[in-house]
């Protein structure tokens, strides 16, 4: 009924934004407003700023058909705070950031109670600590950047270095109850390839995939990340171990930048307005352990480093928030070793708490060998190094071929964490036995 709604009118259309009059005393930042276009389509929008008696909104769809005089309305009896009605029936489904199915498999069964899109992270003084180490199924990660349940890791890489393939290996091979995969600003043609070829039927069966392609409006690309976090929180609250894979945080920040600049916020660090770096930790801190009676969200966020600059603003901010970083190196990829993980530049801050004494020794020994070889690599390639000049370098030259094979892993290959440590122990023990003999 009309009494259940409040109405305003579109006053102006500029760029990606609309200005609305008549609702400014009712709505607030973040509220959802429905716009009726001249084509009689109802388009959802969100309030992003105010200018005196006008509210500025951005739409979740196309601006076509919207002009001055179009009707804007809100439902007074409904909560204005955006939410998703997630349920267990979402497993195995592909949805857009608004929770609408896009896989052609029919309507989604919704839970009676909504999950707030903009939930706060658990109280830092009350949330649980990190759990046991989690088996990722990728040898280089399990051994050198061991991850624990509830940990948050960043995957830093330039374009075309293999991060999407690594994500698919993690989606299939990680030990977890539920996987939530967020594809933010992904190429449209690659979505189906990722789901059918990389994820597969078995991986999809335990997953919820949230997709917003590169042509989607900035609000949709932003909410592809936010909605995925909300879905992960729903399963976490049920006590489940959740794996959240987000590709990529950089495109999420780009969407935030478009929204902020369109609403009039001035650019600051390399064109990113200050609000981007205020919203980023609000999202990332929601991942991790829940309260004692809840499950945990183990999260891996990819960061697309522009021009392979690992100190650009988004990469620098993300690295400071998360519990570790994994670096994919273009030079390693060009050598044909995949996943192209630069072990020496990668770090997991939870490693000291989840390795045995023997495992710690193995990792330190292997890292030392790789560091020595890396330092002398140019001289070795040029033939300037002579055998016997340094015993440690001689050892590194003998072991590195086996270590490179250990770090190389096929896309469909999976190795358990215990087996990975056994393989590494065998490589190092064979070297020690050959030296002693």
From TrEMBL:
Locations listed in the record: Cytoplasm
Pfam families (alphabetical): ATP-synt_ab (PF00006), ATP-synt_ab_N (PF02874), T3SS_ATPase_C (PF18269)
Enzyme category, top tier: translocase
SUPFAM superfamilies: P-loop containing nucleoside triphosphate hydrolases
Coiled coil: none
Single biological process term from Gene Ontology: bacterial-type flagellum organization
Gene3D superfamilies linked to this entry: 3.40.50.12240
Catalysed reaction equations from the record: ATP + H2O + cellular proteinSide 1 = ADP + phosphate + cellular proteinSide 2
Keywords attached to this entry: ATP synthesis, ATP-binding, Bacterial flagellum biogenesis, Bacterial flagellum protein export, Cell projection, Cilium, Cytoplasm, Flagellum, Hydrogen ion transport, Ion transport, Nucleotide-binding, Protein transport, Translocase, Transport
Molecular function as annotated in GO: ATP binding; ATP hydrolysis activity; protein-exporting ATPase activity; proton-transporting ATP synthase activity, rotational mechanism
Domain AAA+ ATPase: residue ranges: 149-333
Main location: cytoplasm
EC nos: 7.1.2.2
Family according to the record: Belongs to the ATPase alpha/beta chains family.
Biological role stated in the UniProt entry: Probable catalytic subunit of a protein translocase for flagellum-specific export, or a proton translocase involved in local circuits at the flagellum.
Name this polypeptide is given: Flagellum-specific ATP synthase
Gene: fliI
């Amino acid at each position: 009924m009309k009494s259940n709604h409040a109405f305003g009118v579109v006053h102006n259309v500029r760029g990606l934004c609309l200005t609305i009059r008549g609702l400014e005393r009712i709505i607030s930042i973040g509220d959802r407003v429905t716009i009726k276009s001249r084509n009689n389509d109802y388009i959802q929008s969100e309030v992003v700023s105010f200018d005196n008696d006008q509210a500025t909104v951005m739409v979740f769809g196309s601006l076509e058909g919207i002009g001055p005089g179009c009707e804007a309305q809100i439902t007074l009896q409904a909560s204005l705070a955006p939410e998703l009605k997630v349920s267990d029936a979402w497993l195995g489904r592909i949805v857009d950031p608004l929770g609408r199915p896009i896989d052609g498999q029919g309507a989604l069964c919704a839970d009676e109670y909504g999950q707030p899109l903009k939930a706060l992270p658990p109280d830092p003084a009350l949330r649980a600590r990190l759990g046991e180490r989690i088996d990722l199924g990728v040898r280089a990660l399990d051994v050198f950047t061991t991850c624990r349940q509830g940990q948050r890791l960043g995957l830093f890489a330039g374009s075309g270095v293999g991060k999407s393939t690594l994500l698919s290996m993690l989606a299939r091979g990680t030990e977890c109850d539920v996987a939530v995969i967020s594809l933010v600003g992904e190429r449209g043609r690659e979505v189906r390839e990722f789901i059918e070829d990389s994820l597969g039927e078995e991986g999809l069966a335990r997953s919820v995939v949230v997709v917003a392609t590169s042509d989607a409006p900035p609000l949709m690309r932003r909410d592809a990340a936010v909605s995925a976090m909300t879905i992960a929180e729903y399963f976490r609250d049920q006590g489940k171990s959740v794996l959240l894979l987000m590709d990529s945080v950089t495109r999420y920040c780009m969407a935030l930048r478009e929204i902020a600049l369109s609403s009039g916020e001035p650019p600051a660090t390399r064109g990113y307005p200050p609000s981007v770096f205020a919203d980023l930790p609000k999202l990332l801190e929601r991942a991790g352990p829940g309260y004692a009676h809840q499950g945990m969200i183990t999260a891996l966020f990819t960061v697309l480093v522009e021009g392979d600059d690992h100190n650009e603003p988004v990469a620098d901010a993300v690295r400071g928030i998360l519990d570790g970083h994994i670096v994919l190196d273009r030079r390693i990829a060009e050598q044909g070793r995949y996943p192209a993980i630069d072990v020496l530049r990668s770090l997991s801050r939870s490693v000291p708490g989840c390795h045995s004494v023997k495992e710690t020794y193995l990792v330190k020994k292997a890292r030392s060998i790789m560091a020595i070889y890396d330092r002398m690599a140019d001289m070795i390639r040029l033939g300037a190094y002579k055998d016997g000049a340094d015993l440690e370098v001689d050892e590194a030259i003998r072991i590195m071929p086996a270590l490179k094979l250990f770090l190389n892993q096929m896309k469909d290959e999976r190795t358990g964490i215990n087996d990975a440590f056994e393989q590494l122990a065998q490589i190092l023990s064979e070297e020690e036995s050959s030296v002693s003999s």
